[in-house]
Recover the amino acids of this structure.
């Protein structure tokens, strides 16, 4: 549904987006990650036709944004970053305006508003002026505007920003449900959101795509992915370290004592072998009759991958 | 203009007009406009002392009255969209940018037309006291409306230039002031003393004053219509160029 090819956006001498290419199919939810100022919003603004790209091409539903912007824009629902609304209108008035701009009239308009208001929990504030709304309500009003016309493509710039934890949960569920039939791109700073909602994630840094894969694939790039964590009680640190180090499948071993317990992290000798390490560690604890209260294989953590990719200098400095 | 375009312009204009009347702006504006009109016409203009059955003392002040009131009415049109960020929302809707520009302009112009229409008691007054030429009065109203439209188009343009309404106001007052002065007799008389005729005429041709004066005399000249029309078209076209450059094209 969305095709982005070699997209470049320059603001004067600064390249905000540099050669970004990706595509999103119907039924996919793409998470857009990156540090502040990485070019996420700029890319989204080009997809929605607000910014014309310096070079490159965006097509939505087969319509080129540069050649046939109106046909492309009809397919898109867009929630801009700051969730702007016309503050001199009521929520109902604002949604009515947005619906009419989308070509919805009469009964179709009322039905669309009714549905969006239900999905975004706006019924209580429907006749309230937008400028008296709290941030969460204003955000959801703008979100409602983006789904009024049941678009095939949704572009959401930080859709859960400024919401309380319950509302965040609701919005995530909503995105997930809608993602079954639409192509959705959303940007976020919250990494657990990506794991909870996205079928694929892109990490963008300084205008370029630095990672593109499923959340599981990205997590596997983590340094700790595949290592085994173990916590045992009443055993000396040195014993734990040497016994674990003696395992055939084990590589490096880190062990620390905290109070009466010892926490150890065992890295596999060969990262490509799955499950062997945890099994060997479990067998060792049984043989030594160690009393352990934690044993699991790390899946890797997205925030660690995110930091490693977007802050390469710091990580290298730490390792040196 | 396709039916779709017409609908989009109408939707935008409707929203803009509702915005005026949802806030005190519209009422404050209309009251001030009518009060000032009365003051200028009857006190400064000496409507009664003249003893003439026409509305010259009414229309004569409009270029000066509009100089401040029209920029005040139009300064928020784009500046506010830019400040709040709704510009992004508006321009990612499936519409052409010119439809938004024309819609906003039309809404504000219609609002100014309403304010102008509410001066109708002055027509009754002059009709009651004497036997005026109603054709001349109608021409005066047409001229006044066109003048307001020209100022408004300039304001729409300056409003797109900035996200600050005050700057937008000041810029449009300055430009409109120039449009008055460059053809105003005291100023052209100054120019005539040292500048060649062609220069004086070129500068004066940009002025709204001679074009507005024709309407006051009851003459609806095609050239005057073309002048006001081209000021509006030029300013609105500049607005579209400004909006495009904002988006970094």
């Amino acid at each position: 549904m969305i095709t982005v090819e070699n997209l470049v956006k320059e603001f004067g001498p600064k390249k905000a987006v540099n050669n970004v290419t990706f595509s999103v199919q119907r039924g996919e939810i793409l998470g857009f990650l990156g540090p502040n100022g990485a070019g996420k919003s700029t890319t989204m603004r080009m997809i929605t036709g607000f910014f014309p790209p310096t070079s490159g091409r965006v097509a939505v539903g087969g319509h080129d944004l540069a050649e046939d912007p109106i046909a492309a824009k009809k397919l898109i629902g867009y929630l801009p970053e700051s969730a702007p609304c016309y503050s001199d209108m009521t929520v109902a008035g604002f949604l009515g305006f947005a619906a009419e701009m989308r070509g919805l009239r009469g009964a179709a308009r009322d039905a669309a508003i009714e549905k969006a208001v239900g999905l975004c929990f706006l019924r209580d504030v429907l006749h309230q002026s937008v400028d008296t709304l709290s941030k969460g309500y204003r955000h959801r009003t703008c979100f409602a505007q983006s789904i009024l016309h049941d678009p095939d493509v949704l572009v959401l710039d930080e859709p859960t920003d400024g919401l309380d934890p319950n509302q965040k949960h609701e919005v995530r569920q909503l995105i997930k449900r809608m993602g079954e039939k639409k192509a959705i791109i959303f940007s976020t700073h919250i990494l657990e959101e990506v794991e909870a909602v996205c079928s694929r994630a892109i990490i963008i840094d300084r205008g370029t795509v630095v990672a593109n894969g499923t959340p599981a694939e990205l997590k596997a790039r983590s340094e700790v992915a595949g290592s085994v964590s173990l916590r045992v009680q009443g055993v000396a640190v040195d014993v734990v370290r040497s016994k674990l180090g003696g395992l055939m499948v084990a590589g490096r071993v880190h062990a620390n004592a905290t109070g009466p317990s010892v926490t150890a992290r065992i890295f596999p000798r060969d990262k490509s072998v799955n499950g062997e390490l945890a099994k060997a560690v479990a067998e060792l604890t049984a043989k030594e009759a160690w009393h352990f209260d934690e044993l699991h294989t790390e899946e890797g953590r997205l925030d660690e991958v995110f930091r490693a990719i977007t802050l390469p200098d710091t990580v290298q400095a730490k390792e040196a | 203009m396709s039916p779709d375009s017409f609908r989009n312009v109408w939707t935008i204009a409707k929203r803009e007009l509702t915005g005026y009347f949802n806030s005190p702006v519209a009422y404050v504006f209309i009251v001030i406009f009518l009060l000032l009109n009365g003051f200028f016409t009857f006190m400064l203009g000496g409507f009664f002392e003249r003893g003439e059955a026409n509305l010259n003392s009414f229309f004569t002040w409009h270029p000066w009255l509009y100089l401040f009131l029209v920029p005040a009415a139009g300064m928020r049109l784009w500046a506010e969209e830019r400040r709040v960020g709704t510009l992004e929302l508006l321009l990612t809707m499936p519409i052409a940018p010119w439809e938004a520009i024309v819609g906003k302009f039309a809404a504000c112009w219609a609002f100014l037309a309403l304010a102008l229409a509410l001066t109708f008691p002055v027509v009754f007054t002059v009709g009651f006291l004497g036997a005026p030429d109603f054709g001349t009065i109608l021409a005066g109203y047409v001229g006044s409306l066109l003048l307001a439209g020209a100022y408004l188009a300039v304001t729409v343009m300056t409003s797109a230039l900035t996200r600050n309404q005050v700057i937008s106001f000041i810029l449009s007052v300055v430009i409109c002031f120039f449009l008055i002065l460059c053809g105003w007799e005291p100023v052209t008389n100054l120019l005539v003393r040292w500048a060649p005729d062609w220069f004086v005429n070129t500068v004066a041709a940009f002025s709204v004053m001679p074009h507005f004066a024709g309407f006051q005399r009851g003459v609806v000249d095609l050239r005057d219509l073309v002048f006001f029309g081209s000021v509006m078209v030029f300013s609105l076209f500049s607005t579209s160029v400004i909006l495009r450059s904002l988006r970094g094209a």
Remarks:
- The two ends of chain A are 45 Å apart (CA to CA).
- Chain A has a mean pLDDT of 86.
- Residues 228-298 of chain A form a domain with the Alpha-Beta Plaits fold (CATH 3.30.70).
